[in-house]
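Minutes, structural biology subgroup

Action item carried over from last meeting: produce the structure token record for DUF1059 domain-containing protein (Frankia nepalensis). EB confirmed the sequence was re-checked against the source entry. Recorded below for completeness.
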Amino acid sequence: MKTTLDCPCGTRIVGDDEDDLVEKAQAHLAEKHPHLEYDRDAILFMAF
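Output recorded by EB:
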């Protein structure tokens, strides 16, 4: 299960599980990078 993602801006996003990680990553994108959108598959592809 992938629960961690390092955003290129330097922010590390950690979720309790994959669903939580995707939710937190999408919230980070909406707040810090509103011009970017990634779906669940893209987020999990970049996660570890």
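Discussion: The longest helix spans residues 18-32.
Next step: EB to file the record with the rest of the batch.
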